[in-house]
User: Which sequence fits this backbone?
């Protein structure tokens, strides 16, 4: 019974780590379309 709980915890930790990496590197965020003036604010 103890090995079943350990396996569940290990697989869930690996799944969470993979989900984090996929969201961090492959999930493309849409650029916000805010009006930016000519004051060189660094938003573009």
Assistant:
């Amino acid at each position: 019974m103890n090995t079943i709980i350990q396996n569940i915890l290990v697989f869930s930790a690996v799944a969470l780590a993979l989900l984090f990496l996929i969201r961090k590197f492959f999930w493309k965020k849409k650029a916000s379309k805010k009006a930016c003036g000519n004051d060189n604010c660094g938003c573009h």
